[in-house]
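notes to self, project folder thing:

trying the whole complex as one job this time. last attempt i did each chain seperately and stitching them together was a nightmare. three parts in total, labels are on each line so i dont mix them up again. if this works i'll redo the older ones the same way
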Amino acid sequence: MSPALVEAHGLVKHFPLGRSLADAISRKPGEVIHAVDGVSLEINDGETLGLIGESGSGKTTLGWLLAKLHVPTAGRIRFAGQDITDLTGRDLLAWRRNVQVVFQDPVGSLDPRLRVWQIVGEPIQAQEHLSRAELKSRVAEILPMVGLPGGSLDQYPHEFSGGGRQRLSLARALSVRPKLLILDEPTSALDVAVQAQVLNNLVALQQDLQLSYLVITHNVAAVRYVADRVAVMYHGLIAEVGPAKEVLEHPIHPYTKALLAALPAPDPRRRRARYRISGEVPTLVHPPPGCRFAPRCPFVIDRCRSEAPTLRAIPGRPEQLVACHRAEEVEDVPPEQLLTGIASAVGGP
Amino acid sequence: MQMAEALLDIRGLSIDYEVGAGVFHAISDLSLQITPGRVLGIVGETGSGKSTLAHAIPRLLQEPPARVRSGRILFRGVDVLELPRWKLPLLRGTGIGMIFQEPINSLNPAYRIFDQVAEAVAVRKLRDSGQTPTLFQAVEPHDYSRGKPVKTGPALLHAAIPHLPGIGTGARREALRTEVLDYLKLVRINDPETILDLYPHELSGGMRQRVMIAIALSEKPALLIADEPTSALDITIQAQVLTLMKELLEEVRTSILFISHDLGVIAEMADDVGVLYAGHLVEFGPVEDVYTNPRHPYTKLLLRSVPNRYKTDGPLPALTGSVPSLAKIPPGCPFHPRCPLAREICSQDPGPVLERAKGASASTHLSACYFSEEVATIG
Amino acid sequence: MTETAPQTRNSSSRAEATLVSKAEASVLRDFLRGLLRVLRANPLTFVGFILVLILSVLALLVVLVPVVTQLLLGHTILLTPFDPNELTTDYGQPPSTSHFFGTDNLGGDIFSRILTALPLDLAIGFGITGFALLVGGGLGLVAGFWDRPGTIGGVVSLVILRVTDVFLAFPSLVLALAIAASLGRGTGPAMLAVLVTWWPYYVRLTRGEVLAVKHQPYVMAARAAGVSEVRILFRHVLRNLLEPLLVYYTLDIGTVLVTFSTISFVGIGVPLSVPEWGSMVELYRRFLQTQPWTVLSAGGAIFVTVLAFSLFGDGLRDILDPRSRRALVQAAIPSTLMAKAAAAAEA
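result (full assembly):
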């Protein structure tokens, strides 16, 4: 059984908040943002892992950690069996061929002053030394893969629509033939119709180029289409992870249920529905002891507030990992039940 | 058929943007009505003209580059487009209210929450008491009728100055305070006293949006235009805000024009829905009918392209091509280059007209397609 | 009706394969095309452009003609009708056919003096501003790019900023005067004084622009691709920096000129024998009522030059930095797609 392509063990990333001069003098430790607070997961060769969560969940930070754009505060990362956590310098540069990122903002992620061949060819240039003609021909090969005309080498990004720019970002990431592509919100800036085209393109490319994807998004519908496995993040931790169909159709974790219940579906019968999960995503500076979702969870019991749950499988569902004390009891509660009232069948606080 | 007088009646509206790059036909010959008490949803992708429509109704468009080519916008019988500029503020707020997509932009970052809500409350109270003129006066409880002529000029000036935010005297601020708290409680903000002194950037996105809704509702408008109000919010927060709005619909008799690109959000909120494509209204009707039995190819294809299946089930039925640039709308039916049902007649000027859809159950289900009865056959 | 520039062909989906690859399209060609467009659209910019051109050519000629004629013919011929220091016998004459701008009370030909001062004043404008741009810009670049707290770069950056703040706390003119006065009379000290006063503004400007670019997603994308920091600096940051700086530079020339002239006007700076517009204004000030053409010509020369550069700089901004126009267009149209399309076409 070959090792997973990417393995993350206990990844932690804290961002320091500035502290006042008085605090610095008295050597009080500054506050930190617990963006990612102990995440372990795997991405297998050739699969798509969907990472879903809302803002503040830490999903983007986790993605950047895996792309080695952030240095982890703690934890290890293995890529194809090799520990890459401490890679620097030339080794890091060489490794970068393997993992590329398609960023969220199609406008901001392309330098407006550079032409298509310069933008798409940049990762190649960082790795090899090619002449201008060679670079241009390499880029011309890649463009049709993402559905762009091969003759658009000399265009500027602003001459393309939102969907076109997204394809440019994709082309840039694919230029060095990475093994893993991390896509940060690939559909957010796009219309529904264009989203479908882009998603189809991604799935087709995966088969043609034997890619693995990490798709970071809050668009649950899109994830359902592209992902093999899905991980749900809340407040810097993974709440649930498992096969896409299982997690999205039979979610176990209360937060996953809350998320799915909140999705607006194009079904007019939903007009009667009232959403019952209250509260905001809490601040990341002082995470509560115990389960992070406890303040908002409709199934919360005392144990949840004091003791943090660990990611585990429950009997009968070996492929799905859940971080919930009451996983077995709440397993069968459908998300819809969070719509019109608290789930009374299982008993609340 | 005796129907309540339409709150908003738009007839043949056409709006262009004239910029250096050319002329964009943002809205072409659009007609629709909003009946009081019902929520009208407008769904469309970017470039469909929906934001233009939202801004056009209270005449918030900047006149160059925008130009109203033709049409009338009748709000309770008054043609908004014919009003002289100085009367427009009287229409807004208490007549037509509006909430926007990004509350961080629509709330002034330099003023505290109390001041911003109080400003809106003060405007309404001035109009209620007759101290400032208004076109439509709100009469308790939540009833709206035509305004009566009131003093202008010096009275307006005198009344307006003390109500600048932050400058009001203690007594006046106190008088407003109760109402401000009431409206914040209306939008389900617990312990509203705690946020009165905060600045917008100190609140979360969901809270800011609630404050915006509170500000809009505190003026008791007859019509509330919501331009993508939840698009910038997280999913669970969006669900909370939508639930809030649904509950408010029962408590406050304000009609809503709800604009969104999200088919699901429209399904949740709207009673009737209009589908916009390239500035044209291509379908209109009760939301159940339009969603379960769409009568225009674009609507049908759009509903189908929302991912709700797994990749092992095959590729998504994506629409081919892309939305046309509004500077170069195809002649005839704007959708015909991408339409599976297109025939020769579809590409001819003039294109089809919005009319009773053939074979639809509701009499108000309209479609602008020559072949509306064949839409069901699109595989 | 404006021509549809190739940029508005929204060629995103594979349905449209209508792109022509511009063979060896150069930055220069884009610039010239943009220049022509703005010049046509904006008559004032056109005027400014022509004026700047005329002034620059004249300045060159004034300097070169004597040198060339000396080399070729053995004796110097001046471009100016009279030697600027020559004292004719026509004292205090109003403008006439022989003396275009009249003469001053000592008989010197105003026109010749103004023309002779042109290269000096232009050089001041271009040169000092240029130096300030290089020095201030360089410091601003460092302060902006390597400013992470806790590193050496962070400390250096902090020092640069605080020193800049100190300089900025003084009103520029007062500071320049003080420095010039303490250094004594002369063109050199005056130039130094202005230079020392001027570079801090460029530090602030450059740093701001660098910070704006640094946090753009495309810089992060470049890092993800493995591009080295230095390359990022040159490739992404500098390129995006060039245009706002150039615009500011052009607009600044006028201000530097006025400042320098003021120093000379006050009596410090250029010695009386060297024609310079500012000192000429000072010199002829008392003749405002009796021989107005003297002071008005000198003041007028400053005015026209500064105006020319301002007009041209404005137009330059429209060509090079379409961000401002794009932003205006985008703000006026609520619809996202149309706003972007309209804005993109302004680029």
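what i see at first glance: The radius of gyration of chain A is 22 Å.
need to look closer tmrw
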